[in-house]
Amino acid sequence: MHPNSVSAQRARLLDQLRQGPVSTLDARAVLDVMHPAARVMELREQGYQIETLWSREPSPCGRLHRVARYVLLPSNDAPRLPLRFRQAVGSSRRVAQ
User: Fold this and answer.
1) Long-range contact list for 40-48, CB < 8 A, 24+ apart?
2) What is the pTM of this model?
3) DSSP for 24-48?
4) In the structure, what pLDDT confidence band is assigned to residue 79 with cuts at 50, 70 and 90?
5) Is the pLDDT of residue 86 over 80?
6) Per-residue pLDDT at 8
7) Kind and range of the H or E element at 53?
8) E strand or H helix at 71, and its extent?
């Protein structure tokens, strides 16, 4: 696996989420994940429950930005059924997210 492939970025992000919250700025600067929102979306599609919290934080140059902070919910040692399957099963009934 190439060290900057999408799957490698997802793995790095998931490893860090298991240790605690990760902001968009930290994901880019520390984990080298340039599009964290996409990687989080992919993890959610794999069944991981990740909450997004919003805050205003300074960038490295000092400007305030609205920044996402991602939190892996505690029940995530094993992912739930992937979203596409839950949607197919839940097409006749609503499935809680």
Assistant:
1) 40/13, 40/70, 42/6, 42/10, 43/10, 43/13, 43/14, 43/17, 44/83, 45/82, 45/83, 45/84, 46/79, 46/82, 47/79, 47/80, 47/81, 47/82, 47/83, 48/14, 48/72, 48/76, 48/79, 48/80
2) 0.75
3) HHHHHHTT--S-HHHHHHHHHHTT-
4) low
5) no
6) 97
7) strand 50-58
8) strand 64-72
